[in-house]
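can u do me a favor
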């Protein structure tokens, strides 16, 4: 007998699953929690969040863990191997069925986006995507809060993404498709050619692709980057395509005055960004890390709300 539930359940898998109004509500709640954390100290009382990390994590691990505790809830970190979340001892759905007898929601970081999507469709437990090879929606929603705090308006934001076509970028593109801010992708041709088809699905007049970092960042008020080789990637050879793509003082001074520099971290100093920029006055990377917590607290309240 299948235990499939029919009740409607909320998940947080990808930004493009949401309407503008829902994203606005999550961000607005995150701002309220940040302003008055005490008010929310029992919002998740008696609730338990499970965390499964099949890849390394510092920020996501800590921000979910501390964030949930500050909402009065508890957290269990579960090791895939130990609990048999690998379809070998029993099916992943069956693990979820059992988990749902003890815990209230589950964050998963893995290298298998399809699995997260499929598990969420079972509606056994609210599922949160804590990064897959495809996307990183918690990161970009956190970054959306940081952008709102630093830029005068999102409508007039002019963001340049410089680097790889990866999970973080996909979530950023999903956000751009909802809010329609200007987003220039500066991606080497050897990489971009593999994603051209995918990019066409999202393209609009405010979403454009450049090869030249200087041209692409000319009017930016935010420059964002990430590692050139993501976790779990097989093609470690691709670094050679990123010549001239290191975000350095020259790229920063070519952009708008007061341009902010963003990076989800971890950073490879000297590769995608120089230490001078990463630690410099335009950098907001530690605020990004901090804001992850408030946004994820808002996501937790959102998915746990009946
Ligand atoms: N930015 C981010 O998700 O960091 P971790 O991989 O350390 O969680
Ligand atoms: N693109 C990076 C992001 C890490 C938070 C990776 O997947 O490794």
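np, heres the sequence
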């Amino acid at each position: 007998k299948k235990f499939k539930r029919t009740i409607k359940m909320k998940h947080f898998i990808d930004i493009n699953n949401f309407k503008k109004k829902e994203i606005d509500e999550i961000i607005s709640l995150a701002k309220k929690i940040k302003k008055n954390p005490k008010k929310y100290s029992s919002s998740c009382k008696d609730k338990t969040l499970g965390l499964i990390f099949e890849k390394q994590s510092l920020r996501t691990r800590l921000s979910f863990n501390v964030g949930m505790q500050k909402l009065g809830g508890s957290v269990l970190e579960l090791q895939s191997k130990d609990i048999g979340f690998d379809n070998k001892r029993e099916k992943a759905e069956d693990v979820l069925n059992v988990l749902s007898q003890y815990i209230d929601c589950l964050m998963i970081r893995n290298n298998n986006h399809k699995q997260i999507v499929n598990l969420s469709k079972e509606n056994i437990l609210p599922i949160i995507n804590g990064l897959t090879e495809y996307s990183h929606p918690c990161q970009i929603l956190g970054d959306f809060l940081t952008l709102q705090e630093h830029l005068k308006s999102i409508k007039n934001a002019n963001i340049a993404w410089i680097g790889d076509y990866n999970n973080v970028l996909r979530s950023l593109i999903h956000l751009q498709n909802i809010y329609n801010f200007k987003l220039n992708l500066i991606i080497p041709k050897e990489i971009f050619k593999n994603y051209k088809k995918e990019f066409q699905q999202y393209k609009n007049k405010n979403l454009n692709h450049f090869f030249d970092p200087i041209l692409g960042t000319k009017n930016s008020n935010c420059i964002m980057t990430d590692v050139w080789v993501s976790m779990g990637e097989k093609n470690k050879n691709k670094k050679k395509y990123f010549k001239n793509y290191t975000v350095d003082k020259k790229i920063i001074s070519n952009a708008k005055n007061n341009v902010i520099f963003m990076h989800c971290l971890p950073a490879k100093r000297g590769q995608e960004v120089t230490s001078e920029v990463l630690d410099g006055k335009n950098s907001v990377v530690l605020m990004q890390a901090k804001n992850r917590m408030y946004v994820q607290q808002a996501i937790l309240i959102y998915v746990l709300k009946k």
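The first helix runs from residue 20 to 35. hope that helps!!
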